[in-house]
Specification:
337 residues; 5-stranded mixed beta sheet; Thrombin, subunit H; mainly beta
């Protein structure tokens, strides 16, 4: 039987919007709201540090690795701010901007319609990719920030720094919704509109497709070791083992209990603990490595905030922040060894 998380949160607060994204860096929490407001909070106390507005709504938020800058994206473009001064470095493109990913504290990539644009911390454009076959849906940095992977229709397009045309393409027909890359860059995975996960081995392009999901796969996350890949796409969260020669011919761990998965986040530090948030309003904590392939597991901990979970993030190995669709933000202590 599962044990509840601490019912007494470290702190709780609320925002006047529906949160769609969370990011935590350096003692700060960035919260992106659907209507276009981003909030910065102190991770230790939940006290506000500032608000930032992106006209047209918001899809993603990300703090730079040193927490000095905030970048956000939305349906009508993207923006960058200096956190302390709140100086706006806004690039309102008028195009759908789905994702933002920092490589270093002075280099960030944002999706800008069918291209990806790389900016420095002052908001100046460094370089831009050629147009992809469709709107860019996700981004990932490889090789310690020296290569940018872009997902769009029909595959993954990899760009070296300052090179507009892709140097490597990993093709797979259809619409790619999310990308996850192992920390060592060995495996590249996408979650897809056709209810599949497609996998490439980066060094030679060898491919594998895990199909048969009942729904589209839009959330993927590797743990910090690169061994375990968690994915939505079914009532059960699936966790695939990438050790050895990879997941070919294997079956995943099965983590049941959600009506629909809204967020996945591995605990920092390589402990093997996975947090999952569901649209039915449950937060579960799991240790997938203790389970058996194709067998349903029980969570280590559960918590029900009373409303649909929309985003979650770990502030450190002992605390997790959970946002619900009605604007409630809770920081929960976690006592798993």
């Amino acid at each position: 039987m599962s044990t509840a998380l601490h019912t007494a949160a470290a702190w709780r607060t609320s925002v006047d919007d529906a949160p769609v994204a969370l990011n935590t860096v350096g003692g700060l929490i960035a919260i992106g709201g659907a209507d276009g407001t981003a909030w910065l909070l102190e991770a230790a106390t939940g006290q506000p540090r500032g608000t930032y507005l992106l006209p047209g709504g918001m899809l993603d938020v990300a703090l730079s690795p040193d927490a000095s800058h905030l970048a956000v994206t939305g349906p009508l473009g993207y923006g960058v701010w200096q956190v302390e001064s709140k100086q706006a470095l806004l690039h309102k493109s008028g195009r759908w901007s789905a994702r933002v990913r920092w490589a270093t504290q002075d280099r960030v990539a944002v999706a800008d319609g069918r291209t990806a644009v790389v900016l420095d911390a002052s908001g100046q454009e460094l370089w831009r990719t050629v147009a992809a076959p469709s709107t860019v849906t996700d981004l990932a940095w490889l090789r310690d920030g020296r290569r940018l992977a872009v997902t769009a229709y029909n595959g993954v397009y990899c760009h070296e720094r300052h090179q507009a045309a892709p140097v490597t393409t990993y093709p797979y027909g259809g619409s790619h919704l999310a990308i996850a890359v192992t920390p060592n860059g060995r495996w590249i995975c996408t979650g897809n509109q056709d209810s599949s996960i497609h996998i490439w081995r980066a060094r030679d392009g060898a491919e594998l497709t895990m199909s048969g999901y009942p729904q589209k796969v839009s959330h993927l996350a590797f743990d910090s070791t690169g061994r375990w890949l968690a994915a939505d796409g079914a009532p059960e969260v699936t966790v695939w083992d990438f050790s050895g020669k990879g997941p070919a011919g294997t079956t995943p761990r099965m983590l049941p209990g959600h009506d629909g998965v809204a967020a996945l986040a591995w605990r920092p530090g390589g402990s093997g603990v996975l947090a999952t948030g569901g649209r039915e309003g449950n937060l579960f904590l799991w240790r997938p490595a203790t389970g058996r392939p194709s067998r349903a597991m029980s969570p280590l901990r559960t918590w029900a905030p009373g409303s649909e979970i929309s985003a979650l993030a770990w502030t450190d190995p002992r605390h997790i922040v959970v946002a619900t669709r009605d604007g409630q933000i809770s920081c929960l202590p976690v006592d798993i060894a």
